[in-house]
Amino acid sequence: MSPQRPKRESAGQQEVHQRSSVHQRSKIWSDQHKPAKSTKSKNPTDSDYVFPKKTVKNIPITEKKEIKTNNSFEALNSDKTDVEEVTTAYKIKPIFMRIFDSYNLVLQDLHRSYPTATNTHTKGYIKIEAQIEIDHDGIIKYLKDKNIEFFVIESPLSRPLKLVIKGLPVDIDPEDIKNDLISKGIKIVKATQLKRFISKAPPYLHDRDST
């Protein structure tokens, strides 16, 4: 017997066969690449929540730089015995002599007696500055003997204190009050009686020597 030859498929059968094979291959590929089903329940609970991972950043460690500062109160912490007491030098106060007609002759006499003293014209006065205390006292004595008008600006510490005494009877003599204060060891320059503008009551004003 002669072998039977395979039957040839018609064109329509071949097309159907090709379509079916393509469909099978696409199904197999889709099954292989199909994502896995999620195992999570539709109603998740708190125990199902997973915190996201946090990465730790490596922060570089830098050395702290020490800032040097100066202590402005360091001198207060030092021993008091090391601190020297600085005494302020005594400054001789200038003498202001009022200018008059023959003031030039007075300056000539002062220059012969006290050649180191300096004279300066300022606002209607002659400013006389002595270099030593002895000359200062001598110039003042000379001006007083000649009855020449002058004044000396004293320091606040050496100026007399002005005191007001209240509550005294009106008919007391100011000289009696002055003598009574002097007898108690208080140096009084002068005592004056003032009157108020409203009640005309005379309060007493005393200039007390601070020394």
Give short descriptive properties of this protein.
211 residues; rod-shaped; 5 helices; alpha+beta; three-stranded antiparallel β-sheet; single chain
What can be said about this structure in brief?
This is Pre-C2HC domain-containing protein. The chain is of the alpha+beta class and 211 residues long.
- Strand arrangement, major sheet: 2-3-1-4
Assign an overall shape.
rod-shaped
Which percent range fits the helix content?
A: 25-40%
Largest sheet: 4 strands, antiparallel
Distance N to C terminus: 167 Å
Order of helices and strands: HHEHEEHEEHEE
Overall strand count:
7
Strand proportion, as a percent range, falls in: 15-25%
Low-confidence stretches: none
Content-based structural category? alpha+beta
Structure description:
The structure is a single chain. The model has no long low-confidence stretch (mean pLDDT 75). Helices cover 28% and strands 16% of the residues. The termini are far apart. It has helices spanning 11-32, 74-77, 103-113, 133-145, 174-183, and strands at 95-98, 118-122, 125-129, 150-152, 161-165, 188-193, 204-208. The strands form two sheets. A four-stranded antiparallel β-sheet has the order 2-3-1-4, covered by helices on one side. Strand 2 and strand 3 (125-129) form a beta hairpin. The protein is built from five helices and seven strands; from the N terminus they run H-H-E-H-E-E-H-E-E-H-E-E. The protein is of the alpha+beta class and 211 residues long. This is Pre-C2HC domain-containing protein. Residues 1-10 have a biased composition (Basic and acidic residues). Residues 1-51 are annotated as: Disordered. It comes from Trichonephila clavipes.
